[in-house]
Amino acid sequence: MAASPKPTQENWHPSSLLAYDALPNHQDFGSVISDAKSTAESRTDFYDRSLTSRRYAFVGVACASIFSCSCIVAGIVIIANHGVSGLAIANMVTIDDFNISDGSHKVTQLNLQVEIMGLILNLIVTLCTESIGFVHDISLRSALVSESRLRFNTNLRLLTAARGLHNPNGVLLNGIMAVLLIISYASTSLVVCVNVQIPTTSPWEPGEGLAITGLPLLILGIALLLQAVVALSGMRTVKIMTWSSSPFDLTAALVHHTQLTPVRFRCMRCVSDLDIDGGPAKPSETQPSAWHAHPSIRKIVISLWGIVTAYTGWAAVVMYIWDKYTGARSMSAALTIQSWSFFPGGQSSSITYPITNVNVDLRVWILVFVNIVVVQGPLTLGLHCAELIANVIRDERQWRCATGIKGLRTTTNPLRSIFTNPLCLVLFIAKPFLHWMFGLSFVIEELAIDGILGSSTIVMNTAQIWNLCIALAIFACLFTLIALHRPRGPQPATYGHLQTLANLVDEWSPVMWWGHKEGMIPYCHAGTSDYPLPDVKMDCVYAGSGVGSHSSIS
Question: Is 282 within 8 Å of 538 (Cβ atoms)?
Fold first, then answer.
């Protein structure tokens, strides 16, 4: 049920309870709901506005902005001094032509340094985009609240939009944010390359070294900075009631500000019962999975497997082309167990196609970025969508602490919620790692001679594409199993659904327990309290407080 600025009216008449036996004493439903509303309002004014989360968010966005500005300045300096095809040489290693083993070892070390630099850049981009994304997500959530369209605590921030074309959280700028996110990760594989130095004077010893390309570094900085600007613009256009990522602080804030009204007689109804007329119900031994409870989870899981299928098809096509057109005249071996490797090398099969054989200009850079964005875009958006599964499971895990020994703590530290939640931690590690693996599969070979990019070639490495497919399949399997898992126990599942939480939580406190509260005839009541409660009775029917006559809890 959507959050609404007006008190929510029940869509079932009191006479519908005849199926469960008539309510005793003929209580007035309007007065009951009014009493519940006033009680909820008086007990939710403690909700945490989470100024600590706001400070963390601002520090993260500030660091991301500083890094982006540094990339912009460095990119401008390199382009100004060396041109669009120029680069800055970081270090140089002399290659001895007469010592083949030593030269081969130095080249291998140099290539390894390039790959490590790419992984570090992907990790930095992940940290920056996650910090910016947190602010963007909070502002989107607040915009949806103002439009009475917020259903769940967690939403897909790039695929869920507020009304208004020019709204910072609207469709247009969300689409731009998605493109900027893809460009941010695409740039990381182009920033670092290998420069070959050809000597013109004695001694005649060539050298190779790491080099930083100017234009990709500039584009990376601009993409990150624009994301920060859009996120901060969205924050300024809405009223943010709480910066907390906890669904309980948000629900308490909405109830306190009368934008969400608890519906009575649903104390044993989970989120999947929203389409069922509310009323008394017996506890269930198992709860629905996120797959069945959240409408977007199914689409995300199917999308993840669609990406795995598409990349598997890509690997098969590359193998077919190599075998049919390249294998007979190639120096590399066919893909076998012996030639399989994690890093690209001369042993495994690959196909190449040149973009240009002359100096790299702006037109060539545009073609390079278009190629990477088209192929890498589904991976970036798929990992973004996987955030919804991780965060929905995080919200449900927090709610189920209410039946534990320590109880449910409504306020959470945003950093602790990431690093103590295994699924969120897996996703945080998977984002830079899978993007880095993509960079090993889809390589833009930039041949730089004496500080000038002379050619650009796209290389598709068969073994590395299959490595990426295997990693993606493992990732998709994990998130599919998590989405299909059904929590055990009678505690109704919410998955961060705000109306369901408002219905189930009847007493708000910083630490809460959920369980059996009142034994009545013919109906019992389950709810929350600031002290441990007994388990609910599996053979009893639960409707809510104030229904039936009170009896002692046995």
Answer: yes
